[in-house]
Amino acid sequence: MKILLVRPNTPKESINLQSFMICEPLELEYVASSLKQVGAEVDLVDMLLEKKSIKYFVKQKQYDIVCFTSYITCVGVCKKYAKQIKEINQKTITVVGGVHCEVVPTDFLDENIDYILWANGVATLVEMTKQFPHIDVDQLEGIFKEGRQKPKLVHGGLVHPDRTITEKYRDHYNYIYHNHCATMKTSFGCPYKCNFCFCTQISPYSVRDLNDVLDELEEIKEDNVFIVDDNFMVCRERLIAFCKGLDERQIHKHYIAFGRADFVSANEDIVVLLHNHGFDAFFVGIESFKSTELNDFSKQSSVEQNIQAIRILENNGLQCYSGLIVAEDWTKEDFDTLIHYLNTFEHPLVNIQPITPMPGTPLFETYKYPLVLERKRYGCWDMAHLAFKPLNMSRRRYYYHIVRAYLETSANKKQRKFIREKYGIRVYRRVKKGAAKIFFQYVSLMINPR
Ligand code: B12
Ligand code: SF4
C-alpha cells in the first residue's frame, strides 16, 4: 500500500506567518510513523517548500491514498489538489485531516475529497489502510458523515512522530528568530476558554507522560525546539518535573513555548527555572491593553498581569513575543495608545491581529456584527484580513493603522538593530524579507481593501 502525505502550500492571498517561519508538518510526521508501523509505504511532500506542482509528485508512484492536512486557510488548496489528483487517476483515494476538519468538517465537502477525518484522525486512517480496498465507513466513526455523532476523542497512545520523513526539508524549518527549529507537542488543548480561540474546540486539555516527552526530546536532532502546546505553562509541578528530567538526562536545548500572562506574573521563579533550562522566549497572548476587551474575550487575565508578565520575562533575559487583538470599534487614538503601550516595553516583538470570529469558535456563534469576509474565501481567514467592517474608520484606514503599529513598534529602528545584533544578519535578513512581503500585502489591501 502506497500513501502520499501532503502539506499544502498556503494560497497567495493569505497574509501568513509562514512568510518568516516554517515549521515541520508535525501532524503528518505522526501520521507517517503510525502508517509505517502497519507496513504502509509512506512518502511526504511539503508543498510549502517545493517548487513543482502536486501533479508531479502524484505521478512519481501509483499511490493508493493521498492525504492532506489543512488549516482553514488551505481548504481551497486541498480541494484544488484533490481535483488534480483525480484527473490523473480517479481511483486514487483522497483523504483530509487536521484541526479545521475536526471542528468544521463540512468546509471540506467536495466531490474530489473521498474522506474527511473529523476525530482520532491517525487511528482512523490506520484502520482505513487495514481495510483497504474495502473501506467500511459505517464502522469507522472517525470519518465524517452528515447526521453522524462525533465519537469521543482518544488521546495518547500515538507513536513518536517520524522526523526522518522530513529529512530533506529540515534545514528550512525555523521559528521567527530561531533557525533549524524542530517542533513537539507535550499536551493537547488548553484549560482556559477564551471565546475567540479555536484551540478550545479541538480537544479537552490533557497532558502527555513526561518520560515519553523526554524520550522524544532525546530523539530530536535540532538544538532549537518550539513546543507547540496551546498553553505550556499550566502546572508548576509539571514544569519543575520537566526541568528535573532535562537535568537527569542531560538534555541541553533551546526552547520557545506559549504561556499565559497570569501564570508568568504569578510564577517568576518558574520562569527563571525554565530560562536556566534553555527557554529563551515565550509567546504570550496579551491580547489587549483594555480591561473591558479582556473581559469581552473571556481572557481571565488582567492588564496589570500583562504588564507584569512582560516585565518579568524581559528582566530575566527572556524574549516576549506578544499577541495583540485589535477590535471593531478601534479609533486612531486606540492605535496610538497601543503603540505607546507596546513601546513602554524593552523589545515589543508583536503579532497584531484584527479580532476574527473563526468558524467553529464560540465567538463565531455569538458575533454581533455583520461578517464581511465571505466564508468561501478560505485563504483570507488568516486572522490578518478584516472579517468585519470597522465601526469608526474605513477598512483602508484600519489596515493602515495596523501597518503603522508594526512599523512603530516591532519593526522600528531600535528593534531592527536589536534583532540584527541578537540573532545575526542571516536571521535578520530572512525575517526582514518575510516582513516586507506582509507589508506589501497590507499596502495592497490599503489600495484595494477586500
Ligand atoms: C505551530 C502552529 C503553527 C505553525 C505551523 C505548524 C504546522 N505544523 O504547520 C506556524 C506558526 C507556521 C503556523 C501558521 C499558521 N497557523 Co497555526 N498553529 C500552530 C499551533 C500552535 C500548533 C499546531 C501543531 O503543530 N500541532 C501539532 C500537531 C501534531 O497536532 P494537530 O495539528 O492537532 O494534528 C493532530 C490531528 O489533527 C491529526 N492530523 C492533523 N492533520 C492530519 C492529516 C491526516 C491525513 C491525518 C490522518 C491526521 C491528521 O493528527 C495529529 C496528531 O493527532 C496551532 C494550535 C493548535 N492547537 O492546533 C495553531 C493553529 C493550527 N494555527 C492556526 C492558524 C490560523 C495559522 C495561520 C493561518 C496563521 C497565519 N495567518 O499565518 C498559519 C497557516 C499556516 C498553514 N500552513 O496554513 C489556527 C488554525 C485555525 C483553523 N481553523 O484552521 C490554530 C488552531 C491557532 C488558533 N488558535 O486559531 N501555525
Ligand atoms: S487563547 Fe491561549 S489561553 Fe486562551 S484558550 Fe486559547 S490557548 Fe488557552
CA(first)-CA(last) distance: 45 Å
Q: What string, H for helix and E for strand, traces the elements in order? A: EHEHEHEHEHEEHEHEHEHHEHHEHEHHHH
Relative helix content = 25-40%
Q: Which radius of gyration do the C-alpha atoms yield?
A: 22 Å
Number of strands: 13
Unreliable residue runs: none
Number of helices: 17
Largest sheet: 6 strands, parallel
What do these coordinates show?
By secondary structure, this protein is an alpha/beta fold. 38% of the residues lie in helices and 14% in strands. The protein has 17 helices and 13 strands. β3 (65-69), α3 and β4 form a beta-alpha-beta unit. The longest helix is centred in the last third of the chain and has 23 residues, at 425-447. The chain is globular and about 60 Å long. 43% of the residues are buried. Bound molecules: cobalamin and iron/sulfur cluster. Cobalamin binds next to α1, β3, β4, α4 and α5.
Which descriptors apply to this entry?
alpha/beta, 38% helix, globular, 14% strand, 6-stranded parallel sheet, 450 residues, binds cobalamin, binds iron/sulfur cluster
SSE blueprint and pairings:
Blueprint: E1 2-7, H1 26-37, E2 41-46, H2 54-58, E3 65-69, H3 75-88, E4 93-97, H4 99-103, E5 115-116, H5 121-131, E6 181-184, E7 187-188, H6 199-202, E8 206-207, H7 210-219, E9 224-227, H8 236-249, E10 254-259, H9 261-266, H10 268-276, E11 279-287, H11 291-296, H12 303-315, E12 319-326, H13 332-342, E13 349-354, H14 362-366, H15 395-407, H16 413-423, H17 425-447
Parallel strand pairs: 1-2, 1-3, 3-4, 4-5, 6-9, 9-10, 10-11, 11-12, 12-13
Antiparallel strand pairs: 7-8
Bound molecules: cobalamin and iron/sulfur cluster.
